[in-house]
Amino acid sequence: MKGISRRLARRIKQVSLAIIDVDGVLTDGRLYYSADGEQLKVFNTLDGHGLKMLASSGVTLAVISGRSSAALAKRAKDLGIKHLKMGVADKATAYQALLKKLKLTTDVVASIGDDIVDLPILMHCAFSAAVPSAPADVASRVDYMTKATAGAGAVREFCEVIMRTQGTYQTALQQYLD
User: Fold this and answer.
1) Are the CB atoms for 129 and 158 separated by under 8 Å?
2) N or C: the chain end with fewer CB closer than 10 Å?
3) Calpha distance 114→24 (Å, rounded)
């Protein structure tokens, strides 16, 4: 795939777990609260369908988020994401616990994040990505920067990079062309 080195492509081909951050990645990072204090989130359907396609290609999906929200729980359920960790203060510990539970190693993990709290995962996985709004300390430590912005296709792009590199994208697309 264009822009992906052979060395990175070899690592991406081994990916069987994708970990997604939420605020600032799956959403645009802004926080909305109703008058009753209910937290509202806006999700992009392109990102959601990208996650569904990635899962159908055989990659397990997980979300590790620093915030808890009913909206996120509902969205994860709608997308069939079985591994949802919300309200996580220590992402490194949550990451290690998930790997242990799934009996996986870091060399089969891809992750996308946006801030320094995501670095414990991003710096210890086979393929790391961040969104354009990520601070320089994150951007300088990931393998790939999405062109699409947070909450507006960045996750879809991340999913497609994995699928195209693994050679599963055309199969995922074909069902819509028949």
Assistant:
1) yes
2) C
3) 6
Give, for all 178 residues of the chain, the pLDDT tens digit.
667 889 998 999 999 999 999 999 999 888 878 788 777 788 899 999 999 999 999 999 999 998 888 888 999 999 989 999 999 999 999 999 999 999 999 999 999 999 999 999 999 999 999 999 999 999 999 999 999 999 899 999 999 999 999 999 999 888 888 7
Distances in whole angstroms, Cα of residue 117 to Cα of each of 106, 129, 159: 18, 14, 21
CA 23 to chain centre: 11
Question: Phi then psi for 108, rounded to 5 degrees?
Answer: -120, 15
Helix (H) or strand (E) holding 128: strand 127-130
